[in-house]
Structure to design on (274 residues):
DNA sequence: CTTGACCTTGTAGTTAAGTACAGGGTTTAC
DNA sequence: GTAAACCCTGTACTTAACTACAAGGTCAAG
């Protein structure tokens, strides 16, 4: 099987070469075989694993969660339910973040609409709202 | 005018006492008058300013941006337009974050729906997607 | 006049996910 | 046979916004 250096797996999977080492130190990669001079020799498997990590990151999983996903992936006795639970938990979290941001968006849009953008700072409705907290709960 | 200690302004505005000192070091608070023994003596103005900061944070502004808002607030010659611009920029940024999160939500919801949650890990559609990146651009 | 709560300063640690060296060894291409 | 490009390790730095000391000084209550 063709073996790859760290820089090569990095390029092949679109992550930084130092990041590969970082992931290894965080336990996201299994021990990598070494040459007699200490060089790590990766296989295509690591490229796949780095792609897995990259895709999971894009879905909002953090490295701790990705580590869990990977260990489920690696364990043939793991249950599909565990994967589904992680996914649903992340979904719920993302939805909460969306709600929070939507709340901010509404207030910001309201403020931007309220402010003419003309005239001096005194009387600016945005500043006034920040000063006195109209919509405070 | 009644003067307040650091702990008192902190409690009155709902931020931590150390945070008050941190904000001062970051330039979000003006120089605070001191007693002869070195104690800072705050006034109600600082409570207002801390509330301003807290409210701006709730709208998604970071401290650097809040510092800009405060310096506009403090400058009688500042223009309302500058405040509006900061607000609109933040609005745009929040909207982008919402879009990004919505994309994640859609994929996660799709994956969660696709996975029965039953059976072994092999063949789990969530894991398979992470492995092979169905929806990669 | 003592005790305890508070204040002062400076500094260091926290979290997340990298990123950037320095100082050395190895491999590859010419 | 040498120079460039790469790899090794360990460590420190990065960003944001705090948070947590430690060692000492002060203030208010009783």
């Amino acid at each position: 099987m063709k073996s790859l250096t760290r820089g090569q797996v990095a390029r092949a999977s679109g992550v930084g070469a130092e990041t590969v080492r970082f992931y290894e130190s965080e336990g996201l990669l299994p021990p990598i075989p070494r040459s007699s001079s200490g060089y790590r020799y990766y296989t295509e498997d690591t490229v796949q694993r780095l792609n897995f990590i990259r895709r999971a990151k894009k879905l909002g999983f953090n490295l701790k969660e990705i580590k869990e996903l990977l260990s489920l992936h690696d364990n043939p006795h793991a249950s599909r339910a565990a994967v589904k639970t992680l996914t649903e938990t992340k979904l719920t979290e993302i939805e909460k973040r969306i709600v929070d941001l939507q709340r901010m968006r509404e207030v910001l849009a309201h403020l931007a609409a309220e402010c003419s953008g003309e005239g001096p700072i005194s009387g600016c409705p945005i500043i006034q709202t920040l000063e006195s907290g109209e919509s405070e709960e």
Notes: Chain B is about 65% helix and 0% strand.
